[in-house]
Hints:
By secondary structure, the chain is an alpha/beta fold. It has helices at about 35-45, 75-80, 100-110, 120-130, 140-150, 155-170, 185-205, and strands spanning about 20-25, 50, 55, 70, 85-90, 95-100, 115, 135-140, 180. The chain has a 5-stranded parallel beta sheet, sandwiched between helices. The protein has a 4-stranded mixed beta sheet with strand order 4-3-6-5. α1 packs across α7 (about 185-205) and α5 (about 140-150) packs antiparallel against α6. The longest helix has 20 residues, at about 185-205. Adenosine-5'-diphosphate binds near residues 32 and 33.
Amino acid sequence: MLPSGVGVRLVGPMSGVSPSRVFVITGPSGVGKGSLISLLRHRIPELELSTSATTRDPRTGEKNGVDYHFLEPSEFDRRVEAGEFLEHAAYSGNQYGTLRSEVEGRIDAGHPVVLEIEVQGARQVAGTMPEAVQIFIAPPALEALKERLEGRGTDSPEAIARRLEVAEEELAARDEFHHQVVNDELERALGELEAIVRGKLSQSEQ
Length: 206
Ligand code: ADP
Ligand code: 5GP
């Protein structure tokens, strides 16, 4: 069971998408998903990142339309009702979701797409696009998450505590996904992630 306040809603399948070129990267907050994806995209520039929508407030330096599409809760709900999301979930008091337009447009243009999303959303994508490549990023130990979230300096102590609480549930789900990469040492984990992604891309091109 996920903690209370965490909602899941299943959405319908997408049309016209070649699923093996969609990469879902999931795992707890602070594990290093964003860091790994940013480095991965330097190594594989054709990979495009879906910009998620969220109702949370922008952090210092975050830009609307770049880091996230920052939406008012009423606008997020409206788009949910309009069926605009491939997946969406409540996480730590806010809504997060992947807009279909972020994925469909890129796939239609021939680009592989990476989604950086939490576990409930990754489960939804696994249900609706079972061939999307699912990669769970795990920490070497729970303690490392706390240190990384504190070190990142973007979240209040209360927000970090909430994220760590959810992280325990998320870690229990790690075996649900196709691949697991332990982000112990960044370069090593990056190499492992890169090998998985390159392997799938070369299969999809055959
Ligand atoms: P996420 O996107 O999963 O929330 P981030 O990529 O923001 O995580 O990483 C959280 C923090 O941990 C950042 O300060 C980042 O520099 C640091 N970090 C990422 N990977 C490692 C690693 N392998 N070892 C130590 N610190 C790391
Ligand atoms: P943050 O607030 O740290 O930017 O993100 C919190 C969590 O939400 C992270 O685990 C992040 O991966 C996840 N997240 C970001 N975008 C999405 C999304 O579009 N859908 C879902 N389900 N989770 C997301």
